[in-house]
Amino acid sequence: MSVLNGTPSTENASAPAPPNDPSSLPPAALDLAAKLFDLARTGDTPLLTTYLTAGIPKNLTNAQGDTLLMLASYHGHIDTVKALLEHGADPNVLNGRGQSVIAGAVFKGYDEVARVLREGGADIELGQPNAMDCARMFKREGILRLFGVGEGEGRTVEINGVQ
Questions:
Q1: Is 83 in contact with 49 (CB distance < 8 Å)?
Q2: Residue-number span of the structural domain to which 139 is assigned
Q3: How many CB atoms are closer than 10 A to CB 18?
Q4: Is residue 46 assigned to a domain?
């Protein structure tokens, strides 16, 4: 706060920075965050949508870097995935292990979730392993077709200058 002409002014005042350490958050905030992650994990779309509409962060992450969208996708909750995408969740956020949302859906074999994520802008080449690698590794032929490649197609690997 600054003083201008003898009166306090909030102009140019900055809001306090959010805490960097989750343990410094109030217990009620931690409880709410845990509840939100559980809603995504269990696919409680109506209640999670209520919180999204009220303004919770659409890309909220847990301690492992998993977003609400990643948890909903990994557990195969297509309606929750759609709702999160409709509310602006980013399908290209990587978690703390460098894994992508769509690669998790491919790994679990949730073809429809992978389709919705792809249509929602998920990049199939993000992450390690990426969604393409997962589809090939686990022989998810339907997903490979969704991505527009056959099992042996897609990536050219150069070894010692030879393709």
A1: yes
A2: 25-146
A3: 7
A4: yes
Which of the 8 DSSP states describes residue 22? G
Q: What is the pLDDT of residue 16?
A: 45
d(CA 120, CA 11): 40
**CA–CA separation, 51 vs 33, rounded Å?**
11
Q: Are 106 and 116 in contact (CB under 8 A)?
A: no
Query: For the chain, what is the domain count?
Result: 1
Q: How many CB atoms lie within 10 A of CB 39?
A: 23
- What tens digit of pLDDT does each residue of 68-89 get? 999 999 999 999 999 999 999 9
CA distance 80 to 135: 23
What is the distance between the alpha carbons of residues 116 and 110, in angstroms, rounded to a whole number?
10
Q: Which CATH number belongs to the domain containing residue 53 in this structure?
A: 1.25.40.20
Do the domain assignments include residue 77? yes
Global pTM reads 0.78
User: Given 3-state DSSP classes, what are the helix, strand and coil percentages for the chain, each rounded to the nearest 5?
Assistant: 45, 5, 50
